[in-house]
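Predict the holo structure. Ligand: 1-deoxynojirimycin.
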Amino acid sequence: MRITDTSDLWWKTAVIYCLDVETFYDSDGDGIGDLGGLAERVDYLAELGVTCLWLMPFYPTPDRDDGYDVTDLYGVDPRLGTHGELVEVIRTANDRGMRVIADVVINHTSDQHPWFKAARRSRDNRYRDWYVWRSDTPPDTSDQVVFPDQEESIWEKDDRTGEWYLHHFYRYQPDLNVANQAVRDEIARTMGFWLELGLDGFRVDAVPFFIDDVETAANDPQRPEVAADPHQYLRDLRAFVNRRRGTAILLGEVNLPHRDQKKYFGGDAADELHMMFDFLTMQNLYLSLARGDVRPLAKALRQRPAIHQSCQWATFVRNHDELTLDKLTDAQRQEVFAAFGPEPEMQIYGRGLKRRLPGMVDGDPRRLRLVYALLFALPGTPTIFYGEELGMGEDLAQEGRMAVRTPMQWTSGRNGGFSTAPPRKLVSPVVQGGYGPAHVNAAQQRRDPDSHWSFMRALIAAYRSCPELGWGTFEVLPQPDNAVLAHRSAWEDAAVIAVHNLGSEATQVELTVADREVLLVDLLQAGEQRTDPKGRVTLELDGYGYRWLRVHPGSDARLP
Ligand code: NOJ
């Protein structure tokens, strides 16, 4: 491996930033963020150090699921702008050294999509088989619904044709029949279209749901044409995407246990998804934070399966959905709820939290910095949700997951500088109170060297200077303090040692980091420390303190 490989496999050391165009910046004063506004803010993202933008769905939509209910996979929502403006965003981002990926929703469409409207017209319509139907009364599937506050079954009766259609999510999101070759061809065509316009890949929504549908079809004796292995579809899709654009990636939403995720990477062949979010590590990170004990997190990291060098985990502490804790045991989830979201209005679907991180840690800047330092030090590619770089808060009065999808806070002015429209016309209300724009905004934080934004910017720069973190071999370093995670990420002759103290008490950590005397150079602050001749060192940590240290390789290959 050479340093130059980091540009070929760019996703292994990227900093991904997720945003929704409609809540980012409104350039025409209608209360809705738009592509012209995003173009204006590309320099802000470049200054922060972001290397890859992830755009949430920008397609035409009735907007009942914030754009994940699409009516035209080739379109741009006219409220946000035009194809031309999207291309301008992509070109401007590319010019500033950033790539752009976007959500692609394969599992379902909106029920207002012309395909579904046609499909429900009659049982013999040519689009009928683009969706999944059954003629017999479905069994109780209440335990399979994703949104238990809204749905009781994953099947909905269509009165006109007297059959039921499948919808894993809301009833207005019928599942596409991905086992149907015509559907696959059309999805590939749309992805090819967006690649041609300059996207560098896709965040693939709800992957296991459509793979499950293919599996069901593959087991159906009536459908001998469906390939026996449902994962062949992901292989075909990846091969297609990389034929069209060699550098493009598929970043999958696959909230499954680690051992199952390996399969979605394509196992040792690594020919399915390039990247996947690591939901399990995220959930165990919160459990560790709640307990002030790193063992759940360390265990999750150790249990990650080894993945091929071209694959990568996307690490995160929050995304645009509920902060799901579905993979914890009931008792563990209750611990996290008690620590970070004790009130019923902070919880959602019985499995997650509606909050952003700052409120959970009572706005304590030490804890906030600790969590992000830890996130960026974990093996993987850090992915942040807009506003995390400012420490934005949530609005619990908003329905469900909309609590964290409030407008970006640019200034302390009207509407937080998001829009000049009257507040009642905004796509979503701006957060009020202590986390509102008067106290939390980009303009003020960019000028303040001690702000959370400045901290995040420095952290991102440090992460980018440590390819070991994305590429290296991860190892937990033994030491007795359970409040401290000490780990090493080593790659070639370079290594980074990171220590993070989840406890409020100051502590000392004795580590063996090498088998000889080495120099350790601080990466997040000024400082350096030598080990003894046996490679042992004692590191001092404040309460919630952290240090990243480069083991000086003895050559000057990596700048110390
Ligand atoms: C997962 C997305 O992250 C979520 O926001 C959406 O509601 C569902 N998929 C359905 O598309």
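The pocket of 1-deoxynojirimycin is lined by residues 65, 68, 105, 169, 205-206, 253, 320-321 (CB under 6 Å). The first strand starts at residue 16 and ends at 19.
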